[in-house]
Amino acid sequence: MHEVSIMAEAVRMAVESAQAAGARRITRLRLRVGTLSGAVPEAMRFAWDVVSGDTIAAGARLEIETVPAAGWCGMCRTEFECADFFNECPHCHNLSGELRHGRELDIAAVEIE
Ligand SMILES: [Zn+2]
């Protein structure tokens, strides 16, 4: 389950920025997760409790924002919703391997006090 290492890294980064801001604890963490990022939100939530346990992020609310995957067609220059890395453009049927969204695995917000 690689979500554990993903969450450990997210906690490490959040704690680092919170401490740099002089926070006593983290109250909320918001992550942005693309549907093609390979990370499963349920597994991330499960891992969260384990990895945040003895940090200043313990007990913080975890919010996961899912980013739908979007492909990009260079032929007709349009963005379209997709479910895979390679997609046929729904407009001109050109095969495109370009993704605009879907690989996100970012910290969107850290709320501290
Ligand atoms: Zn197209």
List keywords for this structure.
35% strand; three-stranded antiparallel β-sheet; alpha+beta; 8 strands; binds zinc ion; three-stranded mixed β-sheet; hypothetical protein PF0899 fold; 113 residues
Polypeptide structure, described:
The chain is an alpha+beta fold. It has a domain at 3-69 and 101-112: hypothetical protein PF0899 fold (2-Layer Sandwich), CATH 3.30.2320. Helices cover 27% and strands 35% of the residues. It contains 2 helices and 8 strands. The strands form 3 sheets. A 3-stranded mixed sheet has the order 2-1-8, with helices on one face. Strands 4-3-7 form a 3-stranded antiparallel sheet, with no helix packed on it. Helix 2 links the parallel strand 1 (26-34) and strand 2 (61-67). Helix 1 packs across helix 2. The longest helix has 18 residues, at 3-20. The radius of gyration is 17 Å and the shape is elongated. The protein starts with a helix and ends with a strand. The structure holds zinc ion (ZN). Zinc ion (ZN) is lined by residues 73, 75-76, 78, 89, 91-92, 94.
